[in-house]
Amino acid sequence: MAIDLTYAPEVVALIEKTRDFTRNVVLPIEDEHAGDIAVAGGDAIRIEMQAAAKEAGVFAPHAPIEYGGHGLNMSDRAPVFEEAATRSSARLRSTSLRRTRAMSTCWPTSRTKRRSSSSSRRSRAGTCGRPSP
């Protein structure tokens, strides 16, 4: 017996609406403020974005309908969350990779110095532009 892994038309429509909302509302704000929520407006922008998501019909796909969500089960909500995350997480992965590469070129921090018994590590600790405590 074959398993049907297709999504209902309502779920497909929500995936598309989520894609549009993320591209047209979320990403421009992330781009404008370099992904820094505090600079973008902190809680005020979060509240504004939640209101915009409600208006766009993409708010809380996981929440029960009586609380303003879509009441989707795990299988149906996964592609919706994936769509929302895919658009911005590519940028996050890229930023994280750059930070990881930058950190890997630095010498160990003082935390590493305390854990390490190596005198060579101990002598190089804190040479990333941050003073050792």
Q: What do these coordinates show?
A:
There is one protein chain. The protein is mostly helical and 133 residues long. Helix content is 64%, strand content 0%. It contains six helices and no strands. Helix 1 (9-32) runs antiparallel to helix 3 (43-56) and helix 1 (9-32) packs parallel to helix 4 (74-104).
Order of helices and strands: HHHHHH
Number of strands: 0
Average pLDDT, all residues: 75
Fraction in helix? 55-70%
Residue fraction in strands? under 5%
Main pleated-sheet profile: none
N-end to C-end Cα span: 64 Å
Instruction: Pick out the low-confidence regions.
Output: 96-133
Task: Give the overall shape, derived from the CA principal axes.
Answer: elongated
Structural class: mainly alpha
Provide the gyration radius in Å.
Answer: 22 Å
SSE arrangement:
Blueprint: H1 9-32, H2 37-40, H3 43-56, H4 74-104, H5 110-115, H6 119-124
Helix pairs in contact: 1-3, 1-4
TL;DR?
With 133 residues, this protein is mostly helical. The chain is built from 6 helices and no strands.
Structural descriptors:
133 residues; 6 helices; mainly alpha
